[in-house]
Structures are given as structure tokens and as C-alpha cells.
Amino acid sequence: MGSEKYINLDEDNISDEHICCAFSDKKCSEGYQLKKEWLKKQFKDGYVFRKLDERGKIFIEYVPAEKAWAPIIAPNYMLINCFWVSGKFKGEEHGKELYQYCLEDAKEMDGLVVMAASRKQPFMSDKKFFIKQGFLLADTAPPYFELWYKPLKANVPIPKFKEIAKTGKNDIKDGLVVYFTNACPFNEYYVNTELKAVAEKQGVNLTIKKLASREQAQNHFVPHTLYSIFYNGEFITQHILNEKAFDRFIQK
């Protein structure tokens, strides 16, 4: 706790610091800057981005659940929004240190909450780590989304997904629809360049919907608001859809 090898981003230092994801991916440079702008707007609501002071993907993002861009009901909980330790930094206890910092930050709250999946999914936290920390299953939503929580007080309300996020269906029934936010720096390129090109090549009608406000995200059709793909009204995946992955997920 308080180790100098970790730093928290804020409005004063974010221009000079990298944000871990996509910092070496030139084609995602626009999304990278948009993520920084998105973060600047979240800091006033208690959003925390804490990272190892190294050039790598070792960080945690969390925010009071009421201010989260997620369709959950978890008053007085802290939502762990993104949590990533990769590459050569694995196995060095960074995950535990980042988690403990978040836990200390939430000690006066009712608990912690995190979104995961019944089976390992890309761009989602692995629930195995959180189960080891004493998290309990709070709720589920089709087809594989799970909400896990760690109560920090006795007899606290159990968090849950909003009912709208349990339908797995959106309101556009024709063709491919992608919803995304600027909370992920990969999205801008992979939606507006890669996915557009793939849909045109495949002859599939594509509708692009950016979730531009917290209110929109809190009333999304599935729990995963960073990026979600629907086809003919049905949720398909939160996997970033490129040409290689298209045929795996979209059956025309």
C-alpha cells in the first residue's frame, strides 16, 4: 500500500503517462487519446486508474458502482471495471497488490463487485482470481455473464444486473449491430475501420452505436458495455470482431 512503484492517473499527469492498453498499437492511436479524454471525465466521479510505473499492461480501474458505465444495481459498492496483468509481469504479485489497494479504498463501502463470465472470455476478468479472494456469485445474465461480489459488512444487499441487461436482445432486428464506448482504446479502430470493412466484404448490413453517456451504458441490453455485437436482434459476442473471427461468430 502506498508503494512508489505504482501510480494513480489524474487530470494533471494523464497527458504524460501511458494508459497501458494499446500504447504501442499505432492504428489505435485515436482510440488511445479518446480513452484518455474519457478518463478525464470520470475522475471527478471517483474513478481510479492505478498502474505499475513501467511500460507494460499492469493496471486496475475501479469506480463507485453508481457511477459505473454498466447496467448493474450495486449501491455503495465499488466496481472493478478493468484489471489486467500481462507478459513478463505475471507471477510477481502485482495483481494482488493492485487488488489490495482497491480493497483498502473501498473499506468504508458495502463491498466490491466485478463482472466476469461462466467460462473464460476475452476482454473480461477471470473469475478464478476473485473466487480466491472470497468473492461470491451474485447474479447471472445470458448467455454467460456473471456478477461476483465481496461483502465488506454484514447483511448488505446483494448486487444484481438490471433486468434490461438479462434479455440478450437489442431493439434493432436487422443485420449486424455493434455497441461500444471509448472506455476501451481498441474500439474506435476495430469498429469504424476493421468491422466496417469486414461487414462490407461479407455483404452484411452494419449499424454502429456508440454509448456516449453513463445513462446509455447503464441501460444497455447486455452487461458488457465496452463492446457488444448483436446479429438480427440477438447478442452474439463481446469479442472484437475482425475478419478472422467473423465466420466463427456470424452464421449468415
Which helices and strands, and how do they pair?
Layout: E1 6-8, H1 29-43, E2 48-52, E3 58-64, E4 72-73, E5 77-85, H2 94-105, E6 111-117, H3 127-132, E7 136-141, E8 145-151, E9 160-161, E10 176-180, H4 187-202, E11 206-210, H5 214-218, E12 227-231, E13 234-237, H6 243-249
Parallel strand pairs: 5-6, 10-11
Antiparallel strand pairs: 1-2, 2-3, 3-5, 4-9, 6-8, 7-8, 10-12, 12-13
Keyphrases for this structure?
4-stranded mixed beta sheet; 24% helix; 252 residues; 2 domains; Aminopeptidase; alpha+beta; Glutaredoxin; 13 strands; single chain
In short:
The chain is an alpha+beta fold and 252 residues long.
Written description of the protein model:
The chain is of the alpha+beta class and 252 residues long. It folds into 2 domains: 6-164, Aminopeptidase, CATH 3.40.630.30; 166-249, Glutaredoxin, CATH 3.40.30. The protein contains 6 helices and 13 strands. It has helices spanning 29-43, 94-105, 127-132, 187-202, 214-218, 243-249; strands at 6-8, 48-52, 58-64, 72-73, 77-85, 111-117, 136-141, 145-151, 160-161, 176-180, 206-210, 227-231, 234-237. Strands 1-2-3-5-6-8-7 form a 7-stranded mixed beta sheet. Strands 11-10-12-13 form a 4-stranded mixed beta sheet, with helices on one face. A two-stranded antiparallel ribbon has the order 4-9. Helix 2 links the parallel strand 5 (77-85) and strand 6.
